[in-house]
Design brief:
- By secondary structure, this protein is an alpha/beta fold.
- It contains 20 helices and 20 strands.
- The strands form three sheets. Strands 11-12-14-15-16-17-18-19 form an eight-stranded mixed β-barrel, surrounded by four helices. A five-stranded parallel β-sheet has the order 2-1-3-4-5, with helices on both faces. Strands 7-8-6-9-10 form a five-stranded mixed β-sheet, with helices on both faces.
- Helix 2 runs parallel beside helix 3, helix 7 packs across helix 8 and helix 8 packs across helix 9.
Length: about 550
């Protein structure tokens, strides 16, 4: 919040005293005898100063030199400067205005005139603070939305596009290189947008929404016009001298209804921009109705997830793993289904990616682990020795420093020996941060857990992982096995993986098995377990219990 002090910069003690006498009833007064002292005061108290009254002729640093420094400092640009002078010289006034002076006060010390000009300058600076972004000097969000509204209302028979424009990975740049470099980059982007849009069509509106996010509203005749403008802005930005990778993201909304609220238009452009995030080589995206529906469904899931967990709407299903030797069930993988109160089922393929993105997956993982521990405890209490159940562990959990303690506390709470609870990690997890994953696997093994690598071969780091991380079980997907038969390349890959696992004393589970010829092929190779629709689909707990009792 700004203070209420006026800084009087004048080498004449009498002049400073005269200004103080006129202003002290309404403002606090600070004094400096030259420009150098004034800059020292500004550096310490800039947030409390609402106006500067500046003399021109002073020793050490005169008013002109002070104005040059003042104009070069972004943080001072909204503090108005009124020049006090006895010299009624048009050339002096022109020079001062060029250097950023706001107004002039003659040293006649007429109290009413001085107070009026001071109040006027301060009020103008307040309005400017509201209308213009203090860092970039382009429109603030409020003023940009207002000017965009006027542009749409006052223009007929033209098409308009709204662009959400931001800097990719800006938070990381700001964190690594500091806030000063972040501000410098934001100013550079603002200048690039100003320059390109002025050349393209001066009627275009643009402003800084917040942080690294900018908005642009532009007329266009063809879609190509929009992409040309975006590319020109990018070309200007690429000239920015940096030692890091710099890329931008653009979300485009074609305005069909000019009466639509500008904030809604902006939201639609934001939706489009969200499609670029965390996608390699995708930097521009267009809003579509399908995108809107998809994001609406995603938001509905997010709105319902906490209540669904609290009301036990998430149901654990078990998909058996069959031992090939004897073709009998030898455990299962715990999978989760979302069954709403009205009976409808939400597919894991719909809600799991959303939960992984927003972090809710950690709560859902724990929920499933606890349900499985409760089931194993029940089996033990009833005198049965249950086959191991494997549960999935998301990558988000592995980065949680409390993950290991949480899991160990859970099995201790239900007195479940860790050998009954197997942990499945997808291969993609191992490509993130090798040292963190290695440490996690080491401590999980030390606690007695069995570790499975799911989706082996789906990524590019499989062999490195086997070399560096101590794993117990490989799960290979039968997508490698085409329906063309056992002689194709996929079959040979599966054969090689099984032989390699055998030499490393690792168990192999083939999942996604649906065809009898796949079973026959895997049996010949000596695969240990099979999981897939050929033997059993995921089933409710009671059905799985009956299956295991029959065994």
């Amino acid at each position: 919040m700004r203070g209420n002090n006026i800084l009087i910069v004048d080498d004449g003690k009498l002049n400073r005293t005269s200004f103080t006498a006129i202003l002290k009833d309404e403002y606090g007064v600070l004094e400096a005898e030259n420009g150098e002292k004034a800059l020292e005061i500004l550096a310490k108290r800039k947030n409390s100063i609402v106006l500067i009254i500046l003399d021109l002729i002073m020793p050490v640093m005169d008013g002109y030199e002070f104005l040059k420094v003042y104009r070069s400092m972004d943080e001072y640009r909204y503090i108005p400067v009124i020049v006090s002078t006895t010299n009624d010289d048009a050339e002096n006034e022109r020079r001062c205005l060029e250097l950023g002076a706001w107004d002039f006060i003659p040293k006649t010390f007429h109290p009413e005139i001085i107070r009026f000009r001071v109040r006027n300058a301060i009020e103008k600076s307040k309005v400017r603070l509201l209308e213009y972004d203090s860092l970039t000097e382009i429109y603030s969000q409020q003023k940009f939305f207002q000017m965009t509204r006027e542009l749409l209302d006052n223009t007929e028979d033209e098409h308009f596009a709204f662009i959400h424009f931001d800097i990719d990975r800006f938070k990381m740049i700001n964190s690594f290189y500091g806030a000063k470099e972040g501000d410098r980059l934001i100013c550079y982007v603002a200048n690039a947008i100003r320059s390109v849009m002025t050349e393209y069509d001066p009627r275009s509106t643009y402003g800084r929404i917040s942080g690294d996010v900018f908005g642009i509203c532009m007329p266009y005749k063809e879609l190509g016009d929009i992409y040309k403008v975006i590319e020109r802005i990018k070309e200007r930005i690429r000239k920015h001298t940096v030692h890091y990778y710099l890329e931008t993201c653009s979300g485009i909304y074609l305005i069909e209804d000019k009466e639509m609220d500008v904030s809604v238009i902006f939201d639609n452009a934001c939706m489009a921009a969200s499609q670029c995030k965390e996608k390699y080589m995708v930097h521009d995206a267009m809003y579509t109705k399908e995108l809107s529906e998809s994001l609406k469904r995603e938001q509905e899931i997010i709105d319902e997830m906490d209540a669904a967990l609290e009301q036990n709407q998430f149901v654990v299903y078990f998909q058996p793993k069959y031992e090939l030797e004897g073709l009998s069930p030898g455990g299962a993988e715990a999978l989760v289904r979302w069954q709403k109160p009205d009976g409808t089922l939400v597919s894991p393929g719909v809600f799991i990616p959303i939960f992984e993105k927003n972090g809710f997956i950690t709560k859902l993982d724990y929920y499933v682990w606890e349900k499985v521990c409760q089931f194993i405890r029940q089996e033990l209490d009833e005198g049965r020795k249950p086959a191991p159940i494997s549960v999935n562990v998301s990558r988000v959990n592995l980065y949680n420093p409390k993950f290991l303690d949480t899991l160990i506390d859970l099995v201790e709470k239900y007195k479940v020996p860790p050998q009954y609870l197997h942990l499945e990690l997808t291969e993609s997890v191992f490509s993130d941060n090798a040292s963190i994953i290695q440490d996690a696997v080491f401590y999980l093994h030390k606690a007695g857990f069995t570790i499975l690598m799911d989706d082996f071969g789906s990524g590019y780091s499989s062999l490195n992982v086997l070399k560096d991380v101590d794993l117990d079980v490989l799960k290979i997907d039968m997508k490698f096995f085409s329906k063309g038969g056992a002689a194709d390349k996929g079959a040979k890959i599966i054969e090689a993986v099984i032989k390699m696992a055998e030499s490393l004393n690792m168990t192999v589970i083939a999942e996604g098995v649906e065809e009898p010829e796949q079973v026959e092929f895997l049996t010949k190779l000596g695969c240990d377990y099979i999981q897939g629709y050929y033997f059993a689909k995921p089933m409710p707990q009671a059905q799985y219990q009956e299956l295991m009792k029959k065994k």
